[in-house]
Automatic annotation (TrEMBL):
InterPro entries: Acyl_CoA_acyltransferase (IPR016181), GNAT_dom (IPR000182), LAT (IPR053013). Residues 1-151 form the N-acetyltransferase domain. It comes from the Bacteria. One of its GO terms (molecular function) is acyltransferase activity, transferring groups other than amino-acyl groups. CDD domains: NAT_SF. This is GNAT family N-acetyltransferase. Keywords: Transferase. Pfam families: Acetyltransf_1. SUPFAM superfamilies: Acyl-CoA N-acyltransferases (Nat) (SSF55729).
Amino acid sequence: MKARKAKEHELDLIYSIGFDAWSSGLSLEEYLVGCRKSKKYSAGTWYVLVEKDEIVSSLIVYKSMFNLKEGCFGIGSVATFRELRQNGYASRLINLVKSELFGSLNCKALYLHSDIDRQFYSRLGFVSIQGSDCMIYSNGQVDCDGSLPTYF
Ligand SMILES: CC(C)(COP(=O)(O)OP(=O)(O)OC[C@H]1O[C@@H](n2cnc3c(N)ncnc32)[C@H](O)[C@@H]1OP(=O)(O)O)[C@@H](O)C(=O)NCCC(=O)NCCS
């Protein structure tokens, strides 16, 4: 199993992973059109988890936007194909991306906005920031001065 950056031709497949959660009643084609036009989706870096040559999970990484400070990153749109959930894939992908960001990309703090029960992210080391839906994983180098990234 490995995590890597997504390739351009994989984007439709990646968008389709979250279809059941985020399509709000749209058809798959309508949903994909929206994803392809999304400025936020084009501005981030998509990562995938690959198991036996197949993509199983994906997430997007943001930096230098959404009020993320220098050295701070955000992750979002974490999703696993519905039939493959509960196999530890999303947890594995988050941990691998975390290692890359803190290891070679000088990340000081990683943020996310949780749409689901925070326990999932707490188990991966993220801590809730009081009074917000935001959670942070940090190596202690960042001062939390109360200014939070906007929703992504
Ligand atoms: C959340 C999600 C990414 C987890 O993917 P996964 O590959 O099954 O994750 P893992 O196998 O590593 O972990 C499974 C855990 O996710 C938790 N989980 C899944 N959906 C959840 C939800 N809606 N609320 C809270 N926890 C959830 C489960 O409780 C499970 O923990 P358990 O084994 O103790 O029951 C997947 O369910 C998904 O794609 N959901 C739709 C998109 C989404 O809502 N993404 C989160 C955006 S913040």
